[in-house]
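Dear support,

I submitted the protein below through the web form. The confirmation email said the job was done, but the results page showed an empty box. After a refresh the structure appeared. I'm attaching both so you can tell me whether what I see now is the final result or a partial one.
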Amino acid sequence: MYQPGDYVVYGDNGLCLVEQVGVPSFNADQKTEYYFLRTSDDGSRIYVPTDTRMPLRAPMTAQEARDFLAQLPDMPANPPERRDRKSVLAHYQEMLRPHTALAMAQVVKSIRLHHRTTPGRMSGAEELLLKRVKHQLCSELAKALSITPDEAQDLLEQAVAAKAEN
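What the results page shows now:
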């Protein structure tokens, strides 16, 4: 169980601070405990049952972040086989299902490859997905490595761009 002051990565919300663990006032008649999470993105509060089935994990440590960045150049991209926008987005959403940093990095790498090899402009939905995933990854990397999100983005871009022929 996570404690107040711990950081967690919660589903698609990214890095969050555990502010409190307890029964929220809106659920006072129940005994279910919740994590009171504060997102690092916009500071909004999320209430998550402590027994949630949604992906909730500890963020990377500094060593895990360095190992993660080191393995990105050799990680293969997995671009979609079909080209219609609905299939492309479904492909990337399926890739993100494990809610791991590696899954997010593979999506970043795959979108980059897909748009280097496919004529035309990236769809707005793909741009938003890429921006969201990169932001989540960089927030986690920045926390782990005690650097700014911009520095984390530079490290991520360098790692993903290395061996770009994958």
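Response: this is the final, complete result; the empty box was a page-load delay. The chain has a mean pLDDT of 91.
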